[in-house]
Amino acid sequence: MIFEGSILLVDDEAHIRKFISLLLRHLGVTRILEASNGSEALAVYAREHPDLVMLDVNMPVMDGIETLRNLKQADPSAVVVMLTSLANRQTIDEAVALGAANYIRKDAPPEDIGRALAETIDACFESGDEPAPAP
Amino acid sequence: MDLPLITPSTDLKGKRILAVDDDRINLRIIGGILRHEGYEISEAASGEAALDLYPTFRPNLVLLDVMMPGIDGFTTCRTLKKTYGDQCAPVIFVTAKSEADDIVMGFDAGGVDYLTKPFRPKEVVARIRTHLINQLLAEQQKLLVSQLSKANADKDRFLGMCAHDLRNPLSSIRGLAELMVEDAIGTMTEEQRDIVQTIHGASQAMLQLVNELLDVATIEGGHMKLDRQPTSVREIVERSVYLSNMEAAKKESRIEMVAGDAAPPIVDVDRNKMRQVVDNIISNAIKYSPKGSVIQVSIHSNGTTAGFAVRDQGPGIPDTERHLLFKDFGRLSAKPTAGEKSTGLGLAICRKIIEAHRGSIGVENLPGGGAEFSVNVPLFK
């Protein structure tokens, strides 16, 4: 997978961030940002304008759905992939309705997570091109 | 849940009975009989007095004369039922022997039974006892139901904990170990690799067990929701064959699709759940067939149902173990041929998923050895 852009990884659990970020580095993503809750994610997003956000659903303070709503309000072109644990159809539908690009089960084996992420990147960015920098 | 066992001989001493009659002699007779039995009695000479007394005395049972000056027994009973609803004590009407219409009206007004004057003490005692016992049983049932729903809610919380606090860390451990084996953080020595592979294998097995236990709990708890959509059997089966071939390759086995129908059938299923069933049956075929086997997968359909079949080259299902195959924790004598893990839940979950779809799942031993698992689900109409 070739992705030159930056990815903001949002999850309240440190071990999940460690696992997904190692996986991303293994896949060749070098610019990885992390946030441990929704409001932190919004602050990092406003400051760094990452190209893609991987967003956990169940988080204290501000959950993933609320964060997604705020992110999309601030930047309708934000590319957001939801990270879910148990696939809850209702939550997924809600996230998609709010403009999430995809959802990935974080309990899936690394190759499945990598494949789903690559699919999203192919669908959301011109293949091979570097994602356009955020305004 | 330590509740006293209620039997016909349960001690009812101290139970409160409200006796309502405008005839003082009747009250004295009935009061005598009941006090002798150990009941606590309160007396009211009219329906109005009974309604006044009810909230402070809080009787366990009401004996209510029908014919009284002022409001009669039926009206009194209706008022009590309306005021206290489900919490109202059972009402037994007291009526003269000949008044058959009274009896019917009494039941209509919400009475549970009737006693006829003149009283026969043994009958009075027996009927009152029966209704007090019934009342106790009903109260105990209510208590049990509320305790059960609390226990069920506790179980759901526990499952939520399983889902979040066990699954997520386990999947991180598995994922990190897998990435380490792939040298994501640099090359390891053979010994390090061996250890990390052990961590990976153990966390993988635990994760599967936790997932399957969660599945069983969800299904048993009646929480399985099917999200049915028109779905191509071929698409689901081909995807699973493709993905499972990676697993099969580790055992030098392979899975092949056998040419089937020209028109691929469309079934009415929950895609994710159907995938889970296909994955599970194919994965079992790899697990229980010797290294280097060829597993054949085919698709079939008739006028009302369609499905798939998986032929393995394993030992087949012994007749004596057949009944265990689709049961929870029904592990058979056959062992996975490359030391793979089995929880004994996989096929039980498959059966429950297929049954929820009103489909069927079965197995036949093949004449030349091996077994064929076959699944059928309703066609999409």
Q: Which descriptors apply to this entry?
A:
heterodimer, A: 135 residues, alpha/beta, Rossmann fold, 5-stranded parallel beta sheet, 5 helices, 18% strand, globular, B: 381 residues, Heat Shock Protein 90, 3 domains, 5-stranded mixed beta sheet, 48% helix
CATH architecture heading of the largest domain in chain B: 2-Layer Sandwich
Mean pLDDT of chain A: 88
User: What's the helical proportion of residues of chain A?
Assistant: 40-55%
Instruction: Enumerate how many helices of chain B there are, as a single number.
Output: 9
The main β sheet of chain B shows up as:
5 strands, parallel
Largest sheet of chain A: 5 strands, parallel
Unreliable spans of chain B are none
Number of helices of chain A: 5
Q: What's the gyration radius of chain A in Å?
A: 13 Å
Structure explained in plain terms:
- The complex is a heterodimer of chains A (135) and B (381).
- Chain A is an alpha/beta fold and 135 residues long.
- Chain A has a single domain, classed as Response regulator (Rossmann fold), CATH 3.40.50.
- Chain A has five helices and five strands, in the order E-H-E-H-E-H-E-H-E-H.
- Chain A has a five-stranded parallel beta sheet with strand order 2-1-3-4-5, sandwiched between helices.
- In chain A, helix 2 packs parallel to helix 3.
- The mean pLDDT of chain A is 88.
- Chain B has three domains: 104 residues, Response regulator (Rossmann fold), CATH 3.40.50; 68 residues; 151 residues, Heat Shock Protein 90.
- The longest helix of chain B has 61 residues.
- Chains A and B meet through helix 1 of A and helix 5 and helix 6 of B.
